[in-house]
Amino acid sequence: MRIWLGQGAIIGIAAVIASATTAIPAERLVSMPRASSAAAESGTIRAPRGWIDFCGRHSQDCTRDTAEPERIDLTPRFWRKLVAVNSAINARLQPLADMTHWGLTESWDYPDDGKGDCEDYALEKRRRLIAAGFPQRVLLMTVVLDEAGQGHAVLLVRTDRGDLVLDNKRDAIFPWSATGYTFIKRESQSQSGWVALGNAVGHTATATFVP
Q1: What DSSP designation does 13 have?
Q2: Domain with 65 in it
Q3: pTM here?
Q4: Which residues pair with 155 in a beta bridge?
Q5: Residue 90 sits in a domain of what CATH number?
């Protein structure tokens, strides 16, 4: 699949396969991260088309409660839950492109049939963590360019130790600045829209997956 970032720029998305795990407990795959800076916002930007469609079908999952905290304290219990959910969803789901899965160029949804694209992995992790007691406001759907310059979706978790990335490409959880990715945009914490990250403010408002 590919991701459309506006002004005619099309960026390919490679199929990804969940990382294999060993007998090591998930919470020991990576140590608690050291404190790091947060990913800087650089203005508002239009949400991905797939997200807009998702919110039309799941409006209750797209509201923003500004009474919730902007960050969580990353306690050992919360850290263990993040790593466990990330590795469990990566292992359980089968990666499948939207065109093959649904016959659509783009579809963001919960992977209730056990299959999905990178954004579906992230949505399921978001849903699981909310059910586990994480504030929805700290769990942010995010669009990036990966280490190969290809479009990709991840879940960004805002903590007192910085912004952490849950990724279907790996079980280990890293600070956003240690992923090797270029961060384009993510959900806003103050409203139902999205915000640009870094130098992405020059992109137009769309981020649509197309074949």
Answers
A1: -
A2: 2-16+26-210
A3: 0.81
A4: 141, 166
A5: 3.10.620
Number of helical H runs and strand E runs in the chain:
4, 12
Q: Residue 21: inside a domain, yes or no?
A: no
CA 144 vs CA 116, 133, 149: distances in Å: 18, 26, 9
Whether 173 is in a domain gets the answer yes
Render pLDDT for 78-121 as a digit per residue (tens, 0 to 9).
999 999 999 999 999 999 988 899 888 888 999 999 999 999 99
Longest dimension (CA), the chain: 46
Q: What are phi and psi of 53, to 5 degrees?
A: -65, -40
Task: Give the pair of three-digit tokens for residue 84.
Answer: 């466990």
What angle is formed at CA 87 by the lines to CA 84 and CA 90, rounded to 5 degrees? Answer: 145
Return the minimum-mean-pLDDT range out of 105-109, 129-133, 135-139, 175-179.
Answer: 105-109
pLDDT in tens, 21-53: 333 444 444 578 889 989 999 899 999 999 999
Q: How many domains does one find in the chain?
A: 1
